[in-house]
Design a protein that fits this description.
Blueprint: H1 11-21, E1 27-28, H2 40-48, H3 51-66, E2 68-69, E3 83-90, E4 93-100, E5 112-113, H4 119-132, E6 136-143, E7 149-155, E8 167-168, E9 171-178, E10 181-186, H5 195-210
Antiparallel strand pairs: 1-2, 3-4, 3-6, 4-5, 6-7, 8-9, 9-10
Amino acid sequence: GGSGVRILDSLKVAERYVNGVFSAQGASRSIGPKWRRSGFMQRVIRKMKDPAALKDRIKKYKILRGEVQRDLAVLQEYIPHQFEWRTVRIGDSFFAHKKLVKGDRASGSLLKEYGAPPLSLLDFVRSITDEHRLYSQAIDLFETSDGSYLVNEMQCIFGQSDPHQMIVDGVPGRYRNIKGEWVFEPGEFNQFESYLLRLDHFISILNEQAD
């Protein structure tokens, strides 16, 4: 959800950050409850009612607080954007929706916009995943003003906060490429955070190996 990502808005800030990372102390992580996220008070009340869960969460915060980033900094160009495409491929199923920006980033905003994705986006994702044999994968992309796509990050383990990964004209479903044509198939394909579909894909791999 963008945890640990910092936007360095000037060369001076970037130099100070990098110097800190390569110092003896390193750079500590920003850890704690996400109080800006909606429902903060409700989450606090639930934890207060469950002392064991609250104790575990505090213990986790202490462990994470002790983790220090040292001698390694990954720098990435900041691309101004209003949304980020979250695309998912599982087997021959393709999904896409927009992750909208909250503040200065889309990661972790939990704000989504559903609709029919450009077929060029599906072509791009299919090309990448075919080339690298990544068949259970999420790819987050920026879309430039000229219609090009820039990959922000790729992950095989990804979260899902809504029941669906794609909704077209109010109908949940998926896209499949059948004989070179993209076909939308209505249906509930993302139950249990898409793990049923991931399991089906894994079983199909085992069956292919058995054959």
